[in-house]
Amino acid sequence: MWKIPKRFGHFVFSVIQSGITCAIAAAVASTPFYADGTFATHWLRAYLYSWTIMLPVVLSAAPLIRKVVAVITR
Known about the structure:
By secondary structure, the chain is an all-alpha fold. It contains two helices and no strands. It comes from Caballeronia glathei.
């Protein structure tokens, strides 16, 4: 199994974190489509759209959030 160098850990974390968050949010938003039988299609579309938007947000916000956390914690 190949390993990604540690210097890219921030990017790997961002991809995983944004992917999980978007999957859950898209599933919640797609719940009304369950009765119609279109849940999976609506979820996949919402998931891909939101992940495309959220990944750059997480990549750019995470360093700032870590700095803020470092300032307000011991």
